[in-house]
Hints:
This protein is an alpha+beta fold. The chain has two domains: about 5-115, Beta Polymerase, domain 2 (2-Layer Sandwich), CATH 3.30.460; about 125-190, no CATH class. It has eight helices and five strands, in the order ααβαβαβββαααα. Helix 6 packs across helix 7 (about 170-175) and helix 7 (about 170-175) packs across helix 8 (about 185-190). The longest helix has 19 residues, at about 5-20.
Amino acid sequence: MNSLLQLQQELQTQSKELLSESKVLELLNHLGTPIQTGSSVTGLMIYPDIDFAVHNQTPELQTAIELVPRLFSELSVTSVKIADFSAEETEGAAYYIGFDMPYAGRTWHIDATISRPGPITTNPPELAHLIEQMSEAQREIILGLKRELIDAKRYVGARSQPPYTFRSVHLYEAVLKGGASTIAEVEAYFSNC
């Protein structure tokens, strides 16, 4: 088995164990209804990270702030980051909370974006269907590209700027829609968009 596929499988198993053995879900429930998203759902994990969309009819940043001491005492988190998006008109989210915690010899990063209830969609929307139809060869390509970009410090998350820096959704689109299999092909795909 490909070592990246083996790592992905190991991380997938550990993410399920972490969620069943820790109070992560219980604590996120204080912020709303957590819905697991991202690579821990799609089977495209390359590092220990679990993403959530948390739905709340009346999201309050103060609730997250008040939760911080419990994160430290009940999950032994090592860091917490909170971002308020309520003033940003372009953001659909109200706020974000992310934290790092030890589990099974690794530091796991938990990301939760809190917003009012609504559909959780990929951008572009057709990616959800493409991910469902993804072949094992495409999965291996995406995992390999993620690893390359992480090692080159070009995998930067929400503030990415293709074709220079990327996040997961960019790789999914370039591979699943554009047929990319190398970083150069991912760059070319976004240079032509």
